[in-house]
Design a protein that fits this description.
Number of strands: 2
Shape: elongated
Strand content: under 5%
Low-confidence stretches: none
Distance between the termini: 31 Å
Largest sheet: 2 strands, antiparallel
CATH topology: Arc Repressor Mutant, subunit A
Radius of gyration: 20 Å
CATH superfamily: Winged helix-like DNA-binding domain superfamily/Winged helix DNA-binding domain
CATH architecture: Orthogonal Bundle
Strand order of the largest sheet: 1-2
Number of helices: 7
Helix content: 55-70%
């Protein structure tokens, strides 16, 4: 039994009469799974000397290779320029990112270093290994089919959301 099953009847008893226990249970499970996935990311990042924010920045740089401006990075991560500057400074001090010359002299594009590529690959390999172990025995075809249906309905209603949460 999962934690939602253990608590659901108590929640439903406190809620308005028209609450669908199935919908409430699914919503609670998806939220808790999201937070559990965040724990997987935290663990993998920490094991490789990074924060999840550092890893997200490396992931964007990996996908936008060979170079990316701080402004592009801020937009991709939905962060302020100040936050991106602090993050890039930390990544440069760690030897994971380096600045490259810009044609216009104003922007200061950055790229991953060899060490940055290696660190990103190692953390991403750890994340995928943990997730593979956690999904062992789960009917992924059925799960993905159900999740795709649900996501398509949400996207139709509310639009697309940022994909930057796909660390790795």
């Amino acid at each position: 039994m999962d934690s939602v099953t253990a608590e659901l009847s108590g929640w439903i008893a406190q809620m308005p009469g028209d609450v669908d226990p199935g919908v409430e249970g699914a919503r609670q499970r998806i939220g808790r799974l999201s937070r559990q996935f965040a724990r997987v990311l935290d663990r993998a990042a920490a094991e490789h000397g990074m924060t999840v924010g550092d890893w997200e920045a490396l992931s964007v740089l990996r996908r936008t290779s060979p170079v990316c401006t701080p402004k592009q990075l801020a937009a991709a991560l939905n962060l302020t320029s100040g936050t991106v500057s602090v993050r890039l400074d930390r990544l440069m001090r760690a030897g994971l990112v380096e600045q490259v010359a810009a044609a216009d002299g104003r922007s200061r594009p950055v790229r991953l270093t060899r060490k940055g590529h290696a660190r990103w690959r190692a953390a991403t390999a750890a994340r995928t290994r943990y997730e593979r172990e956690l999904f062992d025995g789960v009917d992924l075809a059925a799960l993905n089919s159900l999740l795709a249906q649900l996501l398509a309905r949400f996207e139709t209603e509310f639009g697309l959301v940022s994909g930057h949460d796909q660390v790795g």
